[in-house]
TrEMBL record:
<dbReference type="InterPro" id="IPR005119">
    <property type="entry name" value="LysR_subst-bd"/>
</dbReference>
<keyword id="KW-0805">Transcription regulation</keyword>
<keyword id="KW-0804">Transcription</keyword>
<protein>
    <submittedName>
        <fullName>Uncharacterized HTH-type transcriptional regulator YneJ</fullName>
    </submittedName>
</protein>
<dbReference type="InterPro" id="IPR000847">
    <property type="entry name" value="LysR_HTH_N"/>
</dbReference>
<dbReference type="Pfam" id="PF00126">
    <property type="entry name" value="HTH_1"/>
</dbReference>
<dbReference type="GO" id="GO:0000976">
    <property type="term" value="F:transcription cis-regulatory region binding"/>
</dbReference>
<dbReference type="GO" id="GO:0003700">
    <property type="term" value="F:DNA-binding transcription factor activity"/>
</dbReference>
<keyword id="KW-0238">DNA-binding</keyword>
<dbReference type="InterPro" id="IPR036388">
    <property type="entry name" value="WH-like_DNA-bd_sf"/>
</dbReference>
<feature type="domain" description="HTH lysR-type">
    <location>
        <begin position="1"/>
        <end position="58"/>
    </location>
</feature>
<dbReference type="InterPro" id="IPR036390">
    <property type="entry name" value="WH_DNA-bd_sf"/>
</dbReference>
<comment type="similarity">
    <text>Belongs to the LysR transcriptional regulatory family.</text>
</comment>
<dbReference type="Pfam" id="PF03466">
    <property type="entry name" value="LysR_substrate"/>
</dbReference>
Length: 293
C-alpha cells in the first residue's frame, strides 16, 4: 500500500470507471487495473463490484476510502508544511451554497491572483456535512453557519467543538421569505403557511427557521429542495415559506415576487482542523479576513 496506489483507488472510486480514472491520472488503463487488483490482494478484500465497465465500491471499499482520503490529505499537508512560506499544492474548500454564490467570487479571484500555485477545489453542502468533511480530512476548511456560534459577536478565533477551530468572516442578515400575498408578520404565530422549503437536514439556516416557526405552537412540514432558486420558486407559488441571507437576495437582477421579513443576524464562519496551518490555508484565511472581503 503506497500513496500512488491510494490515489489510483480514490480516482476509480470517484469516477466509477477505470477508463475515466486512467484519463484523469494520465495513466494507461492496464496500469490502473493492475494496481487496483494488487491493492485488493494486499488488503485481502474486494474493493469494487464490477458491472461491465462500471466500478462501484463494496462495503469494505467504502470503509477503506475514508482511510485513503485521510492518508492522502495528511501526506499533502506534510509536504506543504515543509515549505511554510510557499503557498502551493491543493486547498479543498467547502462552502454553504449561499456563501459560494454571494460571498466567494471576489475573494477567490483575489486569492488566485495572489497564490497562483495553489489549486483550489470548491464544493458545497450543508453546514453539518461540511463540518464532517473537515473533521474527516475530506476538506481542508469550510465556510459554515455553526449552530453553537449563531449569536457570536467576537471576531476572534475560537474552538467550536472538539478538533474544530473557527473565526467569523462574513456577517449575514437572515430573511424569512413569505408568499407575496401573505398578511403582515410580526411573530411566528402570524405565519399562515405551515410548510418550509429548505435544504436537507444539517443546514443551520433550515434549523433556525424550523425553531422560530415551531415556537408559534404549530409544527411546520419541511419540503426539501436543492437550491435557493427552488426555495424562492416554492415561496412565490404560495406553497411554502423559506429562509435565506440578504446577500443572496441582493444578487437577484429583479426582486423576487415574495415578501422578505428580517429574522436575525448571524455570522458565517471559516472552520478548520486544530493544528492545520499550511501556507495555502493561511493566505486563504487572510484573504477572507481582509477588509474588502
Amino acid at each position: 500500500m503506497d500513496l500512488s496506489s491510494l490515489e489510483i483507488f480514490r480516482s476509480v472510486a470517484e469516477e466509477q470507471s477505470v477508463t475515466r480514472a486512467a484519463a484523469r491520472l494520465q495513466r494507461v488503463q492496464s496500469n490502473v487495473t493492475t494496481r487496483i487488483r494488487q491493492l485488493e490482494e494486499d488488503l485481502g478484500v474486494q474493493l469494487f463490484l464490477r458491472d461491465g465497465k462500471r466500478m462501484t465500491l463494496t462495503d469494505p471499499g467504502r470503509e477503506f476510502l475514508a482511510y485513503a482520503e485521510k492518508l492522502l490529505a495528511l501526506a499533502a499537508e506534510a509536504r506543504q508544511s515543509l515549505h511554510p512560506q510557499v503557498a502551493a499544492g491543493t486547498l479543498r474548500v467547502g462552502s454553504m451554497e449561499s456563501t459560494a454564490a454571494s460571498r466567494l467570487p471576489g475573494p477567490l479571484a483575489a486569492y488566485h491572483n495572489a497564490c497562483p500555485q495553489v489549486q483550489l477545489e470548491v464544493s458545497t453542502g450543508t453546514s453539518q456535512a461540511l463540518v464532517d468533511g473537515v473533521l474527516s480530512r475530506r476538506l481542508d476548511c469550510a465556510l459554515i453557519a455553526h449552530p453553537d456560534a449563531i449569536l457570536a459577536d467576537s471576531k476572534a478565533e475560537r474552538t467550536l467543538e472538539r478538533g474544530l477551530l473557527g473565526v467569523p468572516v462574513f456577517h449575514e442578515q437572515l430573511l424569512l421569505a413569505l408568499p407575496g400575498n401573505h398578511p403582515p408578520v410580526n411573530a411566528a404565530e402570524d405565519v399562515q403557511v405551515r410548510t418550509l422549503a429548505g435544504f436537507a437536514r444539517g443546514c443551520t439556516y433550515r434549523q433556525i427557521a424550523e425553531d422560530w416557526l415551531n415556537a408559534g405552537g404549530t409544527r411546520v412540514q419541511v419540503q426539501e429542495v436543492g437550491s435557493y432558486h427552488g426555495i424562492l420558486a416554492c415561496v412565490a407559488a404560495g406553497a411554502c415559506v423559506g429562509i435565506l441571507p440578504r446577500s443572496l437576495v441582493d444578487l437577484q437582477r429583479q426582486p423576487p415576487a415574495v415578501q422578505l421579513h428580517p429574522l436575525l443576524e448571524t455570522d458565517t464562519w471559516l472552520v478548520w482542523r486544530e493544528g492545520y496551518a499550511t501556507a495555502a490555508f493561511e493566505r486563504f484565511r487572510e484573504t477572507l479576513q481582509a477588509p474588502s472581503s
